[in-house]
Amino acid sequence: MLADDDSHNRYDSGALDDTFSLFDDKQLVSILKHGNNQSLKINELLRTLEDWRNRYNITVIKECDRSDYCSGEFRDVILGYNAIHGYVSLLICLFGSLANVFNVAVLTRRDLAAAPINRLLKWLAVADVFVMMEYVPFSIYRYMLLPRQEERPYAWAVYMLFHMHFTQLFHTASILLTLSLAIWRYIAIKYPSYGPSLCTDRRCSLAIFLSFLLPPILCIPSYFVFTIHEEVSFDKTASKIASKVYYVDSNYEGVLYQLNFWVHAVFIKLLPCVILTIISAWLIRVLYRANSRKKMLKGYNACPASSVVATNGNVFTRKLTKRSKAEKRTDRTTKMLVAVLLLFLLTEFPQGILGLMSGALGRCFFKRCYDLFGELMDALALLNGAINFILYCSMSRQFRTTFGQLIRNRCTATPRASSHTELQTTYV
């Protein structure tokens, strides 16, 4: 180690000559002589400095380039995905936007809109469709058009700032709506006798209102942390024309930076994920017990269509068909919501952990890891919002039936009716 330290203190005569030859540069002498001249253009000075950097092979090492966070072959795999993220996200957004429009159209039908849980699902689809429709122009410009041009105009930085806050607000609203959905289902199953009095339409409207009101309040720190920054860049031609580059980055100093990460990671991501994990585990246990109970009843019940009940000496039969259908419908709804919750946890938990580690480990972890996984986390979040339509269709018979009727009504030409009764029959 001592030998290495001594070798670092030795001077190379060649390097020394190159250093002193810097001051023989005619451009440098001219700039030093006329440095106080107001007519000297800043582009000329910057171009000269860039020539020096290339001539003497000066490498600019950024602050976090030597960090070991998220290094190795796995980093190359993620970077390989980031190269195609624009096309993947565009396909997901186009499909997801159409799917969520279908969700809203089906869930607003008369036979489905009355249920409070369907109202929550409807507004969840509204929040997701806003995120995906806004992500489409961002994906086209950011990943397909912007890499081909050297300039990063100020208008692009303004749009990036808008995109960042817009998607964060509506995605946070979808998180809160998913949390409300889980709590709603938990109350309905855990306390069935108190469910109608607790899960009212008024409280459902209040939950939806708070889901869209709280995100702008929770995201206040990010409004001040992320701002537009400015740099000077040179083109790759021989003229080396300097141009200003605008980009969005965070201000890493101050209390707001740490506060933003803790609020985003803990209150927006991890806390809802922990609550959803507990509720999902409880719902899965309920489904497991229901399946076990059905297997036992199948083994012991010799006459599944009816049961014999004796009351005060009178014997009568009670049909079990209606009760069985209600139980099956409840189980299907619970399974569908469990699938929605588990898909949500799969996409949000990793992002919450990355945000928490960024707040704890500092700027270099954020630059090396959070930025690295940003595109992948975006794709998972978009996929989570887009796949709900498939879950509804595969696990809800009522949703499939209503969607089929909606498509048939739109695709089939409605004949003119000669009476009011005929009109009603056509549209029902």
TrEMBL record:
Where would I find the G-protein coupled receptors family 1 profile domain in this sequence?
99-392
UniProt GO MF annotations: G protein-coupled peptide receptor activity
- Transmembrane intervals: 84-108, 120-144, 156-184, 205-226, 261-288, 337-360, 372-393
Location within or outside the cell = Membrane
Query: What keywords are annotated for this sequence in UniProt?
Result: Membrane, Receptor, Transmembrane, Transmembrane helix
Q: Does the keyword Metal-binding apply?
A: no
Q: Which Gene3D superfamilies match?
A: Rhodopsin 7-helix transmembrane proteins (1.20.1070.10)
- What domain of life does the UniProt record list for this protein's source? Eukaryota
Family per similarity comment: Belongs to the G-protein coupled receptor 1 family.
Full protein name: Putative G-protein coupled receptor B0563.6
Q: What is the native source organism of this protein?
A: Papilio xuthus (Asian swallowtail butterfly)
